[in-house]
Give the backbone structure.
Amino acid sequence: MNDETENSKKGIYALFLRLLKSINWKYALGETLIVVIGITIAFNVDTGYENFKQQRQRKIILRQMLNDLKEDEKEIQKLISATEMTVKNCQTILEFDIKKTTGSKKEINALVNSLFGLVNKPTLRTNDVGYQAFISKTQLRDHQTDSLNILLNQYYQTAYGEINHFEREYEEHRKLKITPYFFENLNFTNPTDIDLNSLTNKYFRNITSYTAIILESGKTKLTSALKTNRKLKTQIRKSI
């Protein structure tokens, strides 16, 4: 029994040796090398294509952000101009002297128009389609330069936040102080029929002064946001 087992083992071993000798090792190694090279090339091509798609998507999003920022710049410039005009209206009202008023229809109309200018609500329309797409793509966000990420945060987080705070502060002041006073003292059926004395009383002058203070603060925030906007546009152009 042991002899048969031993002979069987020897037979298997001999068969294995013949099998090894029959293999064309150069051909086998060549085939293996071709497979390895093929897999490597396929992997690199796939990785390269993914990188290409990511870069293309990155450029699309950055261009969208650039367009958003251009629209923002126009909006901010309009808000700065409107804010400056309203502050000027406030100064006109604070300098109003009833004794020097001729009472002409033209003068009263101009004064009423400046009053109504105080009711205008400054609002920045949010243009952040590109930014929202950007922050939703973790890979894109993580592969940006530190300088670009810093400017993005400064603009979309800090600057937007400060402008929104200014808008809320002004809106609250408008609702609680400005609008009620107008309704009590202006005849909307005939806007020129107003009590000029109402323009000089202490309460209204306090409202007007505080309005100017809020707007001046808002103008500072808008101007700062405009500077960051322009820096960010420059940085994005370099990154595209």
The chain has a mean pLDDT of 76.
